[in-house]
What does this fold into?
Amino acid sequence: MGNVSKPGRYTGGEYNIQTKDWDQADIRVALAFPDIYEIGLSHMGLRILYELINDHPKMLAERVYAPWPDFQALLRSKNALLMSLENKRDLNEFDVVGFSLQYELSYTNVLTMLKLGGIPIYTSERAEHDPLVIGGGPCVFNPEPLADFFDFFLIGEAEEILPEILEQIRKWKLTGQTKAELLRQLEKNSGVYVPAHFQVSYEPDGRIQRIAPLTGAQPERAVVRDYSGAFFPKRWLVPYLDIVHDRVAYEIQRGCTKGCRFCQAGMIYRPVRERPAAAILESLKGLLSTTGYEELSLTSLSSADYSRIEELLTEACGCFTPQGINVSLPSLRIDSFSIDLAKRFQSNRKGSLTFAPEAGTERLRRVINKGVTRENLVTASHAAFKAGWQKLKLYFMIGLPTETQEDLEGIADLAFEVLKIGRQYHPKGNALRITVSVSTFVPKANTPFQWREQISIAETIRKQQFLQERIRGRQLELNWHDPLMSHLEGILTRGDRRLAKVIETAWLKGAQFDGWSDQFQFELWMDAFRQEGIDPSFYIRGRNYDEVLPWSHLNTGLSKDFLRLENERANQEVLTSDCRTDSCTSCGVCSTLHVSKKIEGN
Amino acid sequence: MAKYRIRFSKENNLKYLSHLEIIKTIERAIRRGRLTMAYSEGYHPHPKLSFGPALAVGISSMDEYFDLELVDHDEPERLAKELNGALPEGLRVLAVKKIETHHPVKSLNAILNRAAYTVELNVAAGAQAEIMSQLDQLKEASEIKIARNTKEGQKVVNIRPWLHNLSTKKINDNILAVYIVGEIGSGGHLRPEDIIHALPQPVEIVSIVRTGLWHEEQGRVLKPMDFCDGTGGV
Ligand code: SF4
It folds into this structure.
């Protein structure tokens, strides 16, 4: 143990851990995260489910994260299986193994964990006594590449529906019925999607011909209707290792209504629902006193948009700063209101502030529905530098629909403009630094851009090189995403069931931790595509409205007409307003899923 | 304001925590214990909390220390109880002593210069006598040279001047215990595993425990708590 890196990843025993009596539980769930401990434990969704399940007297949830290669070797050398952190039980002893699927490049880690846990990777190879392998998280909005590895997926928000599902599984265990019978029962619940109950046929050119339901099931996204009363953990786990988000992170609202056309999260977590401010403060007091944390963050997709954010922050700071606790907001808007908030609540200005204009020109920002102007950015930069910040991060995407050379130039122009402003305030500022972060646009399922083409590797590199030539000099820094990783992400995120073989083959060749640049081996994947006779570029191409998309049988509440209209409005460079502040834009979610937006109001 | 010197142990899986992780964990336990720490002045206030010499990852200890300043006064016994209620299993407060503030007290790092360790080795019964005699020879040697990684790269250092005592004991047919007393602090730093690695053949270390920390000067031995009344005997 002493010879593996960071043994604390595998020892468990964190403060507030819940180790329940194994034998007293009727249902045992392994919550699996296909990445390392430091990332997995930082994820809020699993924290919610961990406590939600463990609060139930007859149910038990334990955690397991992807072991780093050195620990995998140790397990193999000792002929041991991958175990949970609480009762140290082998993965294959659980009734349910639930994976949180956050990122396409962690798919091979799912296979590694199943294999190390003694569970056959294909559902078709699993016996009745093997655990039910289920998946949730944003990736299951198109889970098709993983369809053959999972018994079912839970689409959408799990906290309301999961206890009911586990209860049904508990009853099923007592009856001695088959798994097939269980799955037919479970799929009546909203959120449950059993991939084996759909048969996909293909056209000769490779496009999908039909997705035929075999049992008549109509999978629909699960949504928390009463968000103000929604469960939130009280016994927050406090790790010993430095994890990515080492703080109390409190979810103050769910959903974002800005309507950026590239953003999957903004589409799949609708409608916007705010938690009452008083309840937030009350829970925070409890959480801070039971964790002893020195930092707390009010999270959501766009926390500055919470209707009573100013009041909430003022109260939170009033309560907690005297105790030496830092209060922060993870996401800022590019406007003076945001800077003002940051200025008042972030005493530490050594770190950097991040602005996300996303695109280089006003035209392209209209295309993606990011209603930010150059003027906004200029004003915000003035305010930030004036308040004492010297490090600004600007976040952009390349390869957005309709992008031209002028849009790329625009990225460089904005960077220099912001630098110029910075130099006005910090003329001798050796710490002055503008970081330009550029990622490659990856069209995602269930967004208005789901039909769009993703740029090729060669084009990505060309654009990156252009920016590299333009954005250089003292106090300027340019970062970009690995073009090969974005390419693979793009393939997997809009992929279909035929990719299961490719994932398996790449994994057998040694692919794992593909999201880690020091582990990623693109050639293994290309070999796997060749071996399986699949053309990867098929998956990043643009698509017609009448093509059957691999996820078209999954109902997320978003109407196809809305997505299509938004895609058209992108071409016309027209902005669509925010349904938090303006009227409903008829995305379909509220009526289809019988839920309504909930705003605290001022 | 009230200052305390606190002795604690570090065991089980928590021996894998680094010095910084220990500090963070104890800081959080203090907050959970609803004790109000005093903070430094300035732009980035820090809690007034200072620790003794760092312990390497993987080594457990029966004798660690930190100094803590609280806004309110608290009885040492009650403070120990509150901390123990908030600490994770593996960390335990063993003793608390109030530091009399009207005398300046030297920091733990400034006073501590000796550490004792028990190293358990996995040695088969037949080989134990030989290892014991080899360790005795090390103790008698005038030089023990080992390679150490430093900031400037690998360097050969003589650790013999830092080795103050060494003895061995057979525990059972598989385990041999080695008791080591060495120099720590600014005058030099002995690592117990360096002694074991200086043996002519590789020997498997089962565990290392730090069993004591103290100040030694001209034959006088003082424990950290001896300094709390401000006189410190020095
Ligand atoms: S249906 Fe209307 S109110 Fe509801 S999320 Fe969509 S746009 Fe907003």
